[in-house]
Specification:
The two termini are about 15 Å apart. Helix 1 runs parallel beside helix 6. This protein has six helices and nine strands, in the order βαβαβαβαβαββαββ. Strands 3-2-1-4-5-6-7 form a seven-stranded mixed sheet, with helices on both faces. It is globular, with a radius of gyration of 17 Å. It is of the alpha/beta class and about 200 residues long. The chain has a single domain, classed as 3-Layer(aba) Sandwich (Rossmann fold), CATH 3.40.50. The structure holds ligand NHR and glycinamide ribonucleotide. Ligand NHR binds next to strand 5.
Length: about 200
């Protein structure tokens, strides 16, 4: 059974979606821990209630990003995960951290990358007037929100959408594609070829 550690900073609805599918006996991985950098993250309570080990590595307790990332890595390594899943994790990770977990670190970003990397994606999508928006699952690289794309979901932008209504429809799609993407990565169904993710032929 493969092992997954989830990193969160807030609500944890993507984490919850992952816990829901992982409850199925057929699922090929076990969520062994949920780690937050935010003491107030609601997702910590959800994970605890589900009987999952939780950890807090508060970035405010460290003098710089390098030392925070070292503490985070130390905490992650206690659980010996095969895959680390960022689910609404809000701290930019150092190149050293990303290199250590290369190929085993994935994120879901609330836009159709390479459009709108960074923060406030729904607001920027509405301001820009794009007609389609969505979410992207990608391998994490040192280049923020630019790692190889694993999966995407498209959401139509309505003329009367607000940041909140758009975020809500994107989030519903996230809850579908993220567990599926994690499943495929865990089973080795995807491989990197020339920086692109392709479906393996044999598995
Ligand atoms: N780290 C690396 N190296 N590469 C990526 O692709 C990463 C990453 C860390 C997080 C998630 C990403 C997103 O999906 C992610 C991808 C945080 C910020 C940010 O600006 C930007 C992108 C993402 C996550 N964080 C601020 C910081 O100073 C803090 C913002 C806050 O606390 O609210 O780290 O959107
Ligand atoms: C999700 O929409 C996720 O894509 C986004 O934050 C939300 C987290 O919700 N991630 C980022 O913006 C990362 N910077 P959740 O905590 O309920 O999963």
């Amino acid at each position: 059974m493969k092992r997954i550690v989830i990193l969160i900073s807030g609500r944890g609805s993507n984490m919850q979606a992952m816990l829901n599918v992982a409850a199925d006996q057929q699922w090929p991985a076990k969520i062994v821990a949920v780690i937050s950098n935010q003491p107030t993250a609601a997702g910590l309570d959800v994970a605890r209630a589900a009987g999952i080990a939780t950890e807090l590595v508060n970035h405010r307790d460290y003098p710089d990003r390098g030392q925070f990332d070292q503490a985070l890595a130390h905490c992650i390594d206690k659980y010996a995960p095969d895959l680390i899943v960022l689910a609404g994790f809000m701290r930019i990770l150092t190149p050293e951290f990303v290199a250590k977990y290369a190929g085993r670190l994935i994120n879901i970003h609330p836009s159709l990358l390479p459009s709108f990397p960074g923060l406030h994606t729904h607001r920027r999508a509405i301001e820009t007037g794009v007609k389609v928006h969505g979410a992207t699952v990608h391998f994490v690289t040192a280049d923020l929100d630019h790692g190889p794309i694993i999966a995407q979901a498209v959401v139509t932008v309505r003329d009367d959408d607000t940041e909140d209504t758009l975020a809500e429809r994107v989030l519903a799609e996230e809850h579908i594609i993220y567990p599926q993407a994690v499943h495929d990565v865990i089973l080795g169904k995807l491989t990197l070829v020339d920086g692109r993710v392709v479906r393996s032929l044999s598995t």
